[in-house]
Structures are given as C-alpha cells and as structure tokens.
Write a structure and sequence with these properties.
Strand content: 5-15%
Helix content: 40-55%
Distance between the termini: 34 Å
Radius of gyration: 21 Å
Oligomer: single chain
Number of helices: 4
C-alpha cells in the first residue's frame, strides 16, 4: 500500500518534472507560473487514485469485488445489511448473527 500511494506521486512528478523546478518558468515560457502543478491537492489526489486502483486489484485477487452493496450513507458499515441503524447496532447484530451460526 505504501508503494501504491507513492507510485501515484512518482508518476505525477515524472510527467510534470519540468514544471516542478520552480514557482515561475517552465517549458511553456520563462514567465509562466507553475502553481497548478505544485499544488499539493493535485499530487495527493494522484496518489489517492493510484491507491484506489491498487485496492481494486487486491479486491479482484481476493474475490471480494462486487460482493457488497455500495452504501450511500456516509460513515455506514457497508459489510453489514443493517447499516442504516448505526455502528453500535450493526456491531451487535453482526455478533448476534455469528453466534447463531
């Protein structure tokens, strides 16, 4: 996972290397600003995208891709069917179901 995150940053830097050498001046012109290239939100997002792709590969290899419904409720537990009741109730329900089996 550390490499997957880093790989997104590494690829971004390689692609935009000439734009990341200073605040002003790049292949487009000596007086052109580079702020949109060195803005951390941009390269952190590339790292996150790389990590998302790696997690997808792991899910495929482990056979879990597409096995759980996507939740539309922020902060809900997506693995438990009672996700709309809250985390404590979900934990209780999950343990209860495990004991029944």
């Amino acid at each position: 996972t550390q490499w997957a995150f880093w790989d997104g940053i590494r690829a971004y830097e390689a692609e935009h290397h000439d734009y990341l050498q200073g605040q002003i001046g790049n292949p487009d012109g000596d007086d052109k600003p580079n702020k949109k290239y060195y803005d951390p939100r941009v390269w952190i997002r590339k790292a996150e995208e790389s990590m998302i792709a790696r997690v997808g590969v792991s899910m495929e290899k482990l056979g879990s891709k597409g096995r759980y419904e996507k939740s539309s409720e922020p902060g809900s537990h997506q693995c438990l069917p009672e996700a709309k009741k809250g985390p404590v109730v979900n934990l209780y329900a999950g343990i209860k179901n495990m004991i029944k089996k």
